[in-house]
Amino acid sequence: MAVTRDDVAHIALLARLALDEARVPALTAQLNGILAHMDALQKVDTSNAIPVAGVGDAGMPLRADQGPPIPLARPRDTFAPAVRDGFFLVPRLATHEDAAGEVVE
Amino acid sequence: MTSPTDRYEMVVGLEVHVQLKTRTKAFCSCSTEYGAPPNVNTCPVCLALPGALPVLNAEAVRLAVLTGAALECSIECTSVFARKNYFYPDLPKGYQISQYDKPLCEHGRLQIGLNADAQPIVIGITRVHMEEDAGKSIHDRYAAATAIDLNRAGVPLIEIVSEPDMRSSKEAGAYLRVLKQILEYCDVSDVNMEEGSLRVDANVSARLRGETKLGTKTEVKNMNSFSGVERALESEFARQCAALDRGESIQQQTMLWDGAKNEVRPARSKEGSHDYRYFPEPDLPPLVLDQSWIDEIKKNLPELPRARRERFGTAYSLSPDDADALSASVALAEYFEAVARASDDPKAAANWVRGTVLATLNASSGDLRNFPVRPADLAQLIKLVRDGALSNSAAKTVFAEMAATGERPDAIAHRLGVLQERDEAAIEQWVTDVLAEHPAEAQRYLGGEKKLQGVLVGLVMKKSGGRADPKRVNQLLSARAAG
Amino acid sequence: MSDAAAVGAVRNAFARMTEVNAGRDGLNIILWSDQASAERDAAAVAESDGPLAGVPVVVKDNIATLTLPTSCGSRILEGYVSPYEATAITKLRAAGAVIIAKSNCDEFAMGSSTEHSAFGPAKNPLDPRLVPGGSSGGSAAAVASGICRIALGSETGGSVRQPAAFCGVVGVKPTYGRVSRFGLVAFASSLDQIGVFGSRVDDAALGLEVIAGRDARDSTTAQHSVPRYRDSNGERLDGVVIGRPKEYFPESLDPALRTLCDRSLDALRSLGAEVRDVSLPHTDLAIPVYYVIAPAEASSNLARFDGVRYGLRIEGDGLRGMYEATRSRGFGAEVTRRILLGTYVLSAGYYDAYYKKAQGVRALIAQDFRDVFDAGVHAIFTPTAPTPAFAIGAKSDDPYEMYLSDIFTVTANLAGVPAMSLPIGRMNGLPVGGQVIAPHFGEPDMFRVAYALERALGREAHK
Ligand SMILES: [Mg+2]
Ligand SMILES: [Zn+2]
Predict the structure, then answer these.
(1) 3 state DSSP class of B39
(2) Which residues in chain A have their CB less than 8 angstroms from residue B56's CB?
(3) Confidence of residue B403 (pLDDT cuts 50, 70, 90)
(4) Which helix (H) or strand (E) holds C423?
(5) Other C-beta atoms within 10 Å of C56: how many?
(6) What percent of chain C has a predicted confidence (pLDDT) above 90?
(7) Using CB atoms and an 8 Å cut-off, which of residues 133-192 of chain B contact chain A?
(8) Coil, strand, or helix at residue B98?
(9) In chain A, which residue's Cα lies nearest the Cα of B270?
(10) What is the mean pLDDT of residues C114-121?
């Protein structure tokens, strides 16, 4: 399974990473280099592998439906890049669509 | 030539997101109250601060299991949370904690009514899974920016996914109304579409009648009422039929409903941008539930609408129509039943509640939960009429006062002096006085002119201010005539 | 400890810190510190009767602290100060410890050399031309250079044990679920654990005692009560069975390293332990498995760094432009590489072949350990790393080369078992670590072996 430059462009979009064209060939080569080592996994028979035992076998601990929430030592606007009237601000986007045209689920 | 919609069949499946009625969010202890100032109900967990971790709310699990049970699903003892990865500014972690290949509930069913030949129409429920809500993006508040409010981020949801079993927009509407009623009966949600506590997405496709395999479906979003859903389905179905008739193929895409323009339009969507990279949420071990705990919830399931409707028919011998109307909501059904029991007169109770009570409520656009007329008082009113202590017209007057003041009916009747007099002496006196005051009529009547009795009764009633019991007055007059 | 003594200890720590960090060699092992507030804290905890009263502690930069920044060695969190505190930090302070500084690390703990820090590489106190190991290189170096005797790091594939070996100190990776991850900035959630560095086994045991235990804020912490690990400090190992897995002693193993391991195994025998040859057959698959699972989880865990609520934000063309400018300039090359790798192995069409398969093989690796321990082995002994500290820049061109330095440590993270590294000698002047691995929640046996070996080797451990 060789990664193509288009694959790299696609996953870069999914990961919201802008790669400058110059770096793409090198990155593609590196990913293929790393993934080549992963192909060893395909040869292993995992049909009767029992999932990792240990923590969580007893199942997940549940929370009582009550407060108070974990407090914030500092108000939100001390760490948020852009706040107005208590809202976090982001560049304008059209209703129901993000910049990649993805519809919100 | 028949219209396309006659030749094609509509196939619909619905995905309903329901906000669960919990005090705190699904994975943190922030309040879920609606309408707080922006971002006030947020903490390190629902702000997705670096290093924060989710911890699941037990009540959210109970409500989800309760819903699954009400929809006759099989409840899984072990279910698994998964991450659904996508970027959106009101999705703080960059992923939604949801359930994917091991949901909490599967294989349910929902009966939405009867078809033409009186057979039940049953819609399959594919799954009911737990997930968390996203925040709100407000696009029209500021000129150049979108405003993000994360108060809703992390509020517990269930997603109820149906099979593509609906064949018309009417069936879809019926499904939604029955589902909403069941959710209300189970008290798992406020099911308020305006406040967004219930949201509907529809998958719709068209196929030639008689065709058995499914056509390519589109997903229709952005409906904000049940009737909106029905209208959106009609217009998308029409669009698909027309396209198919032109020999075009339907492309799988997301359509947005524009209620104002009454039309659907495709959502701009890039190729391949929908790759959610689901994988098991490593911050949460599998959710493992005791079978005994699940059975306990199933056992204590509240009476559901259909069962209650049938019981009203049998236990109170109500007409199907009455039973239906009186079980519309839990509040109404319980109000009626309280009145019926206390008055020991279901028929009268049904008439009063369906008629005067609902009319008064609608007029004042009030709510049964804080309606001044308590069931016990209405029952007493019904008894007073039955015992002849109140005339029907007087009872209506008294009820109006009860609705206004919340006073007890007997007190009001006394105050208004409309209680029917059953004291012999008083009635005798009125009769004597009337005969004395109208000697001519009295003579002719006592002389055998029976037809005058009606006139005299009227005069006595007038004199008594309507308090005399007409039956008794008649008897007394007849007695005098005979004597 | 008296008020003066507590403040004095902090002053000495800062004096040493200035010396090594900014001094001639400029080791760059400390990123953030504030002497004034540290001295105030020291004065405040002076009366504490906690086991760490007045003890200065250095903490890795990816663990949330209220007063010092938590930048994870990344531009994207430069200047970010957490408005809440990690559970491990709360427990340290409750025990009387004074948090004096945040230490340098590979960006978001992704690396094995602390060269991948946005704030420049950290250097090895024993030779500034060498890496201190990583990703918790700064904390290991802080203990090695005498700034403190206890420091916190974090482990995902060996990030505490490997730098401990490179710097000649003790480093512990607890059982997965033993220490709360609440406040540890996530790299790979199913592998991450906070770990403890100590100048000696006893320091590490004490540190772990303090931070271990169930936390209602971390759903993956275990109920098991926390034993007093310092009670494992004993003379003899009669009846203890030590496993020697052949996969960790390949033909290719450096003879000098083999000799040092043999010396340790002889020491263990002389203490009454039985050394048994065992096999962990799937060991050679650990690196491929690790480099599927860790990047996959990382690609999701690092999605929250989007410039919306905190941290770096760089405006661009619309929302997507802002996302991409912020993340591309905020993340370094290694983090970018791993996010892309992780996104790829999770993306449609590849999930089963990579992520699902890797989880299956991970289960086989865990089963390997279970089989060995079920056969009556109390602890496993191996070298911690295939080489001692290497030169800065030596492995920066081929990422996979770098990944291989975790080859003996990733298995414990994949299996979730506890493991620690302690000094067992030197080869051409550089420290070498020996690794002790125990079954789930077998920390008491792990420490028992480590205490005894440390005592038996004595000064030899640092020769
Ligand atoms: Mg959903
Ligand atoms: Zn919260």
Answers:
(1) coil
(2) 60, 62-63
(3) confident
(4) strand C419-427
(5) 28
(6) 91
(7) 134, 137-139, 141-150
(8) strand
(9) A101
(10) 96
Q: Does B284 touch chain C if contact means CB atoms closer than 8 Å?
A: yes
- Residues less than 5 Å from ion ligand 2, measured at CB: B 28, 30, 43, 45-46
For A34, the closest of C176, C291, C316 (CB atoms) is C291
* Two tokens, residue A80: 């948020």
**Strand ranges in B7-73 using DSSP code E only, listed in sequence order:** 8-19
* Residues B338/B221, Cβ–Cβ less than 8 Å: no
Cβ distance A86 to B37 less than 8 Å, yes or no, reads yes
- Minimum Cα–Cα distance from A73: chain C residue: C83
Question: Which one of A66, A92, A98 has the shortest CB-CB distance to B29?
Answer: A66
Query: Mind telling me how many Å the CA of B148 is from chain C's nearest CA?
Result: 9
Do B330 and B315 contact (CB within 8 A), yes or no?
Answer: no
B198-238: per-residue pLDDT in tens? Answer: 999 999 999 999 888 999 999 999 998 999 999 999 999 99
pLDDT in tens, B119-149: 999 999 999 999 999 999 999 899 889 999 9
C-beta of residue C104 within 8 angstroms of C-beta of residue C83: no
Contact B54, B80 (CB under 8 A): no
> Residue C296, SS3?
helix
Q: What is the mean pLDDT of residues B466-480?
A: 82
In order of B88, B94, C80, C108, C463, the CA distances from C305 in angstroms are 12, 8, 12, 12, 45
Residue B472 has which token pair? Answer: 């008794």
Return the amino acid letter for C222. Answer: A
The Cα of C412 is separated from the nearest Cα of chain B by a number of Å equal to: 17
Give the Cα separation of C442 and C376 in Å (integer).
13
Query: End-to-end distance of chain A based on CA atoms, in angstroms?
Result: 31
Give the residues across from C63 on adjacent strands.
C184
Full DSSP string of C349-362: TTTIIIIIHHHHHH
Nearest to residue B162, comparing CAs of B174, B151, B153? B174
Q: Rounded to two decimals, what is the model's pTM? A: 0.91
C112 carries an active-site annotation: no
Helix (H) or strand (E) holding B470, with range, is helix B470-482
Distance CA B352, CA B356 (A): 5
For residue B279, report the phi and psi dihedrals to the nearest 5 degrees. Answer: -155, 155
Rounded Cα–Cα distance for residues C98 and C82 (Å): 18
Beta strands in B233-328 (DSSP E): 254-258, 263-266, 279-280, 287-288
